[in-house]
Amino acid sequence: MEFGWSPEEQAHRQRIRALLDETLPDDWEQLSVHGPGSDYQTDYSKQFCAMLAERGLLVPHWPAAYGGEDAPVWHQFILGEEMWAAGEPRGAQYMNVNWVGPVLMKFGTPDQIARHIPPIHAGQAIWCQGFSEPGAGSDLAALRTTATPVEGGYSVSGAKIWTSYAGKADTCFLLARLPAREGGPTGKAAIVILLTDMKSPGIQVKQIPALIGEGDIHEVFFDEVFVPTDCRLGAEGQAWEIINSVLANERTGIARYEFSRRMLDRGVARLKEEGRWNDPVVQDRAARALMLCEAARMLVYRIVDGKARDLPPDAFPSVARWAVVRADNGVNDFLTEFLPDGLCGGDPVQLAHHQRAIAAGVASGAAEIQLNLIARRWLELPGESRK
Amino acid sequence: MNYDLSEDQSSVLSALDSILADYKAPPIEPVPFAYGAELDAILTESGFLDIAREEGFGPLDAALIVERVARSPLVVEVAASTLVAPVLPIPQGLRPIALHDGALTAPIRFLPQARALVVLRDDHAAIATIDAGQVEEIETMMAYPYGRLVEPTALSFERFDDAGLVRRRWRIGMAAEAAGCMVSALASVLEHVTTRFAFGRPLGSLQAVQHRLAMASEIAESTRWLAFRAAWSDTEADAAIAAGYAQAHISQFTYDLHQFSGAMGLTLEYPLHFWSYRLRALAGELGGASHQSRSAAAAIWGEAA
């Protein structure tokens, strides 16, 4: 057991930091304030990710057979930490490298892999995630968008909501439900995954003005959208297995605590500049937020360590996710209380952090769902129906 | 970065577990605490408490032992012996050791068993040998033995200048001990809410109970991994973070576990207090969470601009 970084890992981190210093625009802090889903950042991501791809830093963790370098799991994670802490210049494409690509490799047909992997590998693909619906958020299995089998494919009708990056996405990782029929699949077994071209006729995207910045929340309407059969990922009935694989990657994909930690450092620097740091109450509160960040870091690292050692997945990611939500909100609470002017034009990066923090317990499934999962799968507490 | 135990660590913990297996049962008598004198003797004889003095071992190995022993319902002085004593001019084998940082007239944890007392001051530590005649035992609801010095001025202290080192190891030991107590306290309550039925269903099937136990499990995991990291790095910042995190969360953690144990949790027949009242005792050590918190702030960010 040891908790340090190898010389190679330290060099990898320094290389990424140097690259960020070298390549990000001088006014990146202002530009990145609207978040990974903003028009600017989505467009910039194609330039930035292409550069990362050229330097072998976009998908080094992918298998060599898919254009990666079989780089260690920790290298990918260090990359993610540094990117998220820098305002995520990969924009929406962090999803591609973290889970869209790997899921396609695992479950996709050769044709799907040939179609979708090269643009992701080149840093030119924008995906969105068509999961949540007005009546199915964290309760994903309740989704109602229908995929009616038709000649050569499916006719999709319904609506998705809270869809990040939809306004700029090329492809939607869309979940829809086969219509009920006598003897047919029901519940989760009736869900299919359709890799849907967002330029398909019948798709309408509407951005929803939000507290959390530009481009992060959309409604997407599907009106008899035709999706060819060869765009279905996996077999009918296999979707839930694939979704769980996606969620397992997604829930630990973002090193939120690293951004929070750096925001805390930034906040303390400002308090020092303003001569307010020597207040023991301020120091106490800052360090309590720091403790939450470091706790989240240790729990997330435990998951990465499990992946690095090829251990079977367990329910621990839910424990870590709860810690990450606490860290984001702990830092946000500290900054909002002691540096409120940062949210009133004083610090664009603090505003960006605030916007991420208030969404931390909602995005990717409510934090309370994680508590349910911890209770059932980690603590093995009985379900409600047990008598 | 590797969260797996080394071969040596696995061997040590495996041997330790086989000893602790005989001491899993809580005392039969309803008592606030029970000092594991027999367990203490076995651990001493087997060399577990001197592990940090051995070539190839160090504070992390000691913290692993502290955490594991703290899971026992029997209380044994392990943290000071394994983590603090090796850096002090205390002869090997002179233990148990009581750590203290307040007035010499105050109650001191482990003093009734202690053969050495380490008093931490701002700029130094003071070490004295103790014999039983110098101590009067105190009745307490805390699940540790506490005693008071009969005549504090009669003690002869040896000065040790590196107060920071003593404080750091104390914090690491405290965090590791809290982590072990949390593991067993939580396990005890999980068993209770799984087997205790109310309104026709197990208590643990109620979402209100599940969510708070889920939160408690996150606290226990965070405490444990922060403690181990602090032991591995042996730095001021990590030690203060680990101890401060543990202390800051003990209140909520123990409240929830007692709450879900109902009136059973208020009795001495139910074992929860063997861990929860150790945790509550630890919450106030070394000035409490705010003290560790400000130390962490100073270590990470410095005092001022």
Question: Any chance you could write out the topology, listing elements then pairs?
Answer:
The complex is a heterodimer of chains A (387) and B (305).
Chain A: H1 7-23, H2 28-31, H3 39-54, H4 73-85, H5 93-107, H6 110-121, E1 127-130, E2 146-150, E3 153-161, E4 171-177, E5 191-197, E6 203-207, E7 218-228, E8 232-233, H7 239-250, H8 256-273, H9 280-308, H10 316-338, H11 348-360, H12 367-378
Parallel strand pairs in A: 1-4
Antiparallel strand pairs in A: 2-3, 3-7, 4-5, 5-8, 6-7
Helix pairs in contact in A: 1-4, 4-8, 5-6, 5-7, 8-9, 8-10, 8-11, 9-10, 10-11, 10-12
Chain B: H1 7-20, H2 37-46, H3 59-69, H4 79-84, E1 97-100, E2 108-109, E3 116-120, E4 125-129, E5 135-138, E6 146-149, E7 158-160, H5 163-195, E8 197-198, E9 201-202, H6 207-233, H7 236-261, H8 273-282, H9 289-301
- The rounded distance between the terminal residues' Cα atoms of chain B is 33 Å
DSSP helical segment count of chain B: 9
State Rg of chain A. 21 Å
Low-confidence stretches of chain A: none
Q: In angstroms, what is the radius of gyration of chain B?
A: 19 Å
Intertermini distance of chain A: 42 Å
Major sheet of chain A: 4 strands, mixed
Give the ordered list of helices and strands of chain A: HHHHHHEEEEEEEEHHHHHH
Q: What average pLDDT do the residues of chain A reach?
A: 91
* Tally of discrete structural domains of chain B: 2
The structural class of chain A is alpha+beta
Oligomer: heterodimer
| Coarse shape of chain A | globular
State the share of residues found in helices of chain B, binned by percent.
40-55%
Give the averaged pLDDT of chain B, no decimals. 96
Compute the number of strand runs of chain B. 9
How much strand of chain A? Answer: 5-15%
